[in-house]
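Lest this sound abstract, we think one record worth quoting, the chain in one-letter code, the fold tokenised, each line plainly labelled:

>
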Amino acid sequence: MLRPPRPRTPALAPCVLCTLAALCAFGLSACANTIQHQPVAPSFLEPLVMQRAFPIYWLGGAFRRLPIIGVGRDPAGAYEIQYGNCTQGGENVCVTPLQIVTSPDNSFRPGGSIPQRHISVRGVPGTAAQGGTTIELSTGTVVVDIYADSPALARAAAREMVTINALQLPGEPLPRPLPNTGFAQKPLLSQQPPTPPLARVVSAD
């Protein structure tokens, strides 16, 4: 059953992401918070770059002159990256012109009862909703959701998004969607009991 689209999220602080030099296929840009632009160290990108469990999609340090203002990970494991200063809200609640969300739960399909149409982008199936400002794509083991303030911006993001933790060229075909990985059924690390220390073995002589 399709679920309704993910709502725009609050502004994430502190501002994170500018980019590591090794992945600068796009122009490097300073990060910004909801008040003023502030450059941050590229080392803040390392958790995303080092993620090996699943691919994470992004649009570079800036996209169409929209710098990254925030990045976060929700309890379900999805990574979200926000581009551009707030168009609505302020320091605590911020709706940005562009947001890209990578969910490792590939059984999650946004939509619900809202009107949507089936599309194909870079060789993979997807849906467009809310007049084309929301695009959802299934690729490999993940689902990527793009929320934009215009259909043109959403389409451009879908055409040019790449993985931050693996080499990929903008516009190249995306991996075909794989069967449900069961990610949602896997317990979070914080939900797993601690591993007891190994008992010390004492030999009897």
